[in-house]
């Protein structure tokens, strides 16, 4: 009875690779001998030779004998250091009427999976570096926004101080006008009293000259302060616009950072999954 099952498998196994579209090495064994070996096109895994008697003394036979002994399949990952590329070997016991009558061994290449793993690692490293760079930009944009806010606040204070100075200049100009009037009145009175008012006339003349100089100086100060005030308004306006851009950039970079963080986490999961799939020693199922 068992001979029929194994013979049927010997007929169908050579077609499995073409049916599933995967390059693989297949072998079929009875409890004692290798019944057939179908080599893969891209690699060759050492194993039982067709017609060879199975023995525990031969390392390539042990997984096959172990699967038939325990009745459980096994998966073994061979690192690329052993045969030039990583391989995955599966030994599956063949049952008939509740008894193990043989074993099927299947080996496939993990070269593409290994390439994906290395590419994913590289992607993960690049994403991590990009995330760090974007976080640094985001921190810089936030700091810039804070500095611009401080400059804007300082500009507002300076604007108030300039307005205060302008008010003081206005007061000086008002006092200058009064001094001119007093000097003029003093000169008139000094001329009216004649020789007795000569000394007072000198004081009035000096007072008028001083008022004239004070008025001209106050005018110059007023013009300078007016220009400073306009410059401060322009600076405040420009700083406000730049601050708005900086805040927008900070918000955008935070969104990018969050997105990169998600992508990096997903890449990390893929890396861990690929590492698990390509580096595990043995799984019994």
What does this structure look like?
The protein has 285 residues and is an alpha+beta fold. It folds into two domains: 2-109, 2-Layer Sandwich (Beta-Lactamase); 115-278, Methyl-accepting chemotaxis protein (Helix Hairpins, Orthogonal Bundle). 70% of the residues lie in helices and 14% in strands. It is built from five helices and six strands; from the N terminus they run αββαβαββααβ. The protein has helices at residues 2-20, 59-70, 80-83, 111-193, 198-279; strands at residues 24-30, 34-38, 74-78, 87-96, 99-109, 282-284. Strands 2-1-5-4-3-6 form a six-stranded antiparallel β-sheet, with helices on both faces. Strand 1 and strand 2 form a beta hairpin. Helix 4 runs antiparallel to helix 5. The two termini are 27 Å apart.
Q: Proportion of β residues?
A: 5-15%
Q: Mind telling me the C-alpha Rg? A: 48 Å
Percent range for helical residues? over 70%
Approximate shape: rod-shaped
What order do the helices and strands follow?
Answer: HEEHEHEEHHE
What is the CATH domain class of the largest domain? Mainly Alpha
* Average pLDDT figure: 77
Straight-line N-to-C gap: 27 Å
Give me the oligomer status.
Answer: single chain
Poorly predicted sequence stretches spanning 5 or more consecutive residues: 280-285
Structural class: alpha+beta
Report the sheet with the most strands, covering strand number, pairing sense and barrel closure: 6 strands, antiparallel
CATH fold-type name of the largest domain: Helix Hairpins
What strand line-up does the widest sheet have?
A: 2-1-5-4-3-6
Number of strands: 6
Under the CATH scheme, the architecture of the largest domain is Orthogonal Bundle
CATH superfamily annotation of the largest domain? Methyl-accepting chemotaxis protein
Number of helices: 5
What number of structural domains do the residues give? Answer: 2
């Amino acid at each position: 009875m068992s001979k029929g099952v194994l013979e049927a498998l010997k007929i169908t196994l050579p077609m499995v690779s073409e049916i599933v579209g995967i390059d693989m090495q297949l072998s079929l064994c009875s409890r004692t001998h290798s019944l057939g070996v179908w080599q893969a096109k891209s690699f060759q895994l050492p194993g039982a030779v067709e017609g060879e008697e199975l023995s525990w003394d031969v390392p390539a036979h042990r997984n096959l004998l172990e699967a038939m002994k325990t009745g459980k399949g096994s998966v073994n990952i061979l690192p690329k250091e052993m045969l030039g590329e990583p391989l995955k070997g599966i030994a599956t016991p063949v049952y008939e009427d509740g008894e193990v009558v043989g074993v099927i061994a299947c080996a496939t290449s993990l070269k593409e999976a290994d390439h994906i793993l290395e590419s994913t690692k590289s992607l993960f490293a690049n994403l991590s570096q990009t995330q760090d760079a974007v976080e640094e930009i985001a921190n810089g944009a936030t700091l810039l926004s804070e500095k611009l806010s401080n400059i804007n606040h300082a500009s507002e204070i300076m604007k108030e101080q300039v307005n205060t100075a302008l008010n003081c200049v206005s007061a000086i100009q008002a006092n200058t006008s009064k001094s001119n009037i007093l000097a003029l009145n003093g000169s008139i009175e000094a001329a009216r009293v004649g020789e007795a008012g000569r000394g007072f006339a000198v004081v009035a003349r000096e007072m008028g000259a001083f008022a004239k100089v004070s008025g001209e100086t106050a005018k110059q100060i007023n013009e300078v302060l007016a220009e400073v005030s306009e410059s401060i308004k322009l600076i405040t306006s420009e700083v406000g616009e730049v601050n708005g851009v900086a805040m927008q950039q900070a918000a955008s970079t935070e969104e990018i950072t969050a997105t990169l963080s998600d992508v990096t986490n997903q890449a990390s999961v893929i890396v861990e999954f690929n590492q698990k799939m390509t580096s595990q020693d043995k799984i019994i199922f």
